[in-house]
Structures are given as structure tokens and as C-alpha cells.
Amino acid sequence: MSRIDDLPPLREVIRAHGLDARKSLGQNFLLDLNLTSRIARAAAPLDACTVVEIGPGPGGLTRALLAAGAGRVIAIEKDRRCLPALAEIADRYPGRLTVVEGDALEIDAATLAAGEPVKIVANLPYNVGTQLLINWITTPGWPPFWSSLTLMFQREVAERIVAAPGDKAYGRLGVLAGWRTQARILFDISPQAFTPPPKVTSAVVQLVPRVEPLPCSLKALERVTAAAFGQRRKMLRASLKTLDPQAERLIEEAGLIPTARAEEIDIAGFVALAERFAGGRLM
Ligand code: SAM
Q1: CATH code, 264
Q2: Protein residue with its CA nearest to atom 21 in ligand 1
Q3: CA atoms lying within 13 Å on the CB side of residue 29
Q4: Most buried one in 5, 63, 71, 190, CB count within 10 A?
Q5: What is the pLDDT of residues 110-120, one digit of tens each?
Q6: What is the mean pLDDT of residues 242-246?
């Protein structure tokens, strides 16, 4: 694929605007149009929703989203050096791209979208990617304001998001993501596709909200998983004792075996534990 629009090639945009990549902002730009288009297609259809993109940078993925038919894109970028390049894209697609300068950790994407259905699509800056994901998954109220998240992470983080009991990568992130969403890895992207290349392989993950996640207190679930996986080699009766001296009894009441370890417990099991411990002294 040589072109998806009549804007200048991304390498030229980067040169013209002096967008040398900054490590502190997690800047690894994706310049391959086949790949940016593949990410946009994975999130399709895009015409009947507002797409929120985090960290558009020089605008490669932004352009792919617009070329793929996104009706409206709201792009949140912290690096103001990128704004002129993004303004050129906004001119090319009148009324369809709104650029918001700021820190995505502090901006409420739901408010920006003003009640319209939202899909979040991003090549996330690695230093804040996990926290952004946790914020979206733990958003107050359910179903959330977004109908899908199509996100690029380091492959190791992607594996933690989709991990199941027994997997080496299974931990707090997998429980949280699996509790409220269905998450899967769509495809990998090699380091060479980026400028500059990161040290590790990346992967695109898609998460869609579960219609009816098992009812559970988020706070209790977070505390139980933190205690259980914080000492993942220990049996639950030992690791959860820090939360309640009656841990062994509560674990049994949750229908689980006190000598099991965190990595063996599925999401329903953690929800049951959160319930029992919330009814005890946890909350
Ligand atoms: N979307 C572009 C691409 O695919 O080539 C750039 C992706 S780059 C991995 C991450 C982008 O996020 C950079 O443009 C960076 O400036 C921006 N960024 C970093 N931290 C941010 C934050 N807290 N809020 C918003 N944008 C941020």
C-alpha cells in the first residue's frame, strides 16, 4: 500500500515538523500504512461512532482511521510539537478530527465524546498504557462509555491482559480484564515496523465489554487479587491472611480450596473470594 490519502508521507511529516522521537513520551512511531490500516480495520465499523485515539503523534494511525471511514476522531496528544502536523490532517478531513492537547491520564474521554458511542483505538505510549487500560476497565458504571478498545501494547503486557488461569502471565491485570471484558490478541507487530524500533515485539489487543460481568465490588476484587498475586507462590490461606485472619474459612465459603495458589483460581473464583472477604473485614 503506497498511499491512503493525499497528505505527505509520514517520514516527510516527521522531518518537516522536527518530530524526533522522545523516549520520555513513549514515542515509537508506526509508519507502515499496511499496519496502521490493519489496526483501523480491526476496529471497524467506524462510521457510526466517535473514535478516541490516544497519542496520535505525527498522525499515522489517525490518517488510517479517517481513511477507513471514521466519522469523527478525537485525538488526545501530550506532545505539542505534533499539533501542526495533526492540524494538516484536520484540514484534509473537515469537521472529522478534533485534536485535544493534554495528558490522556487526566482527560475524561467519556466527557469529550459527549454521550456518543465511543471506540478507543491507540498505539499506546508504553509508559502509561497499562494505567490507561485499567482506568477504562474500572470506569464507574457498566456498560462503559466505550464499546471496544483496540490497543497496541508490548507483547508481554498483551499476554498479561488475555492470560487465563495456569498461564505464566496470569495475574491481577488478567483477572480485571477478564472480569469485565472479553480480550484477545489480534496480531503481533515486529520492532522493525516502528521508528525508532522498540526493544520488544508489540501486539494489538481488542477488548469488548461483557454485557453482564459477575456482580462484584471492584475495590474488594482489587484487594483480593493484590494480596493473592502479591505472594503468588504461597497458598491462598497464607497470602489472604493479611486481609483477614479468618482467611481459611472465607476461602472455603467461597467454594475454593485454601491450599490452592492464585494462579489456579479463575475469575469466578476471585469474584467469590472478593464477595466473601468484602462480607468479612475487608471493606
Ligand atoms: N499514534 C502514533 C503512531 O502510531 O505512530 C504515535 C504512537 S507513540 C507509541 C505514543 C504517542 O503518545 C506519542 O505521540 C506520545 O507523544 C503520546 N503520549 C505519550 N504520553 C501521553 C499522554 N500521557 N497523553 C497523551 N498522549 C501521550
Answers
A1: 1.10.8.100
A2: 78
A3: 19
A4: 63
A5: 999 888 899 99
A6: 94
State the Cα–Cα distance between residues 261 and 245, nearest whole angstrom.
Answer: 18
Q: How far is the CA of 80 from the centre of ligand 1 (A)?
A: 11
* ipTM score: 0.99
Q: How far apart are CA 168 and CA 173, in angstroms?
A: 13
Report yes or no: 93 and 6 within 8 Å, Cβ to Cβ: no
- Looking at the fold, whether 239 and 144 belong to one and the same domain comes out as no
Nearest CA to ligand 1 atom 14: 57
Same domain, 60 and 190: yes
The whole-model pTM stands at 0.96
Is residue 78 one of the residues assigned to a domain?
yes
Ligand 1, atom nearest to 105 Cα: 23
Pocket of ligand 1 (CB under 6 A): 25-30, 54-57, 60-61, 76-79, 82, 103-105, 123, 125, 128
